[in-house]
Amino acid sequence: MAAPRLALSVFVLMLAVITLSEGMRGTGPKKCCFRFNESEVPRDRVAGYIKTSQRCSNPAILLKTKAGRQLCVRPSAPWVKTLITYLDSKAIPGETSNL
What we know:
Chemokine_b/g/d, three-stranded antiparallel β-sheet, alpha+beta, secreted
């Protein structure tokens, strides 16, 4: 009688540990950049941008063009900083993302 209870207790404990460890792992970043577009993109072709996750190995800005393409650019590039300032000035107050 004690053996089935012990087996059930061990099973429930192992299930709890697995569930907890999977929940702590979480999901990884949706998009990271490993190759970068170095040439300047005209601002009239850019629809919006997002910053990649801090969990990515390379900090990056992901530009979305009006043609629907996504381009990885370096946030430290002077033209990217200017472009972000321009896009932020066009953003509607209260919006969290302009994509």
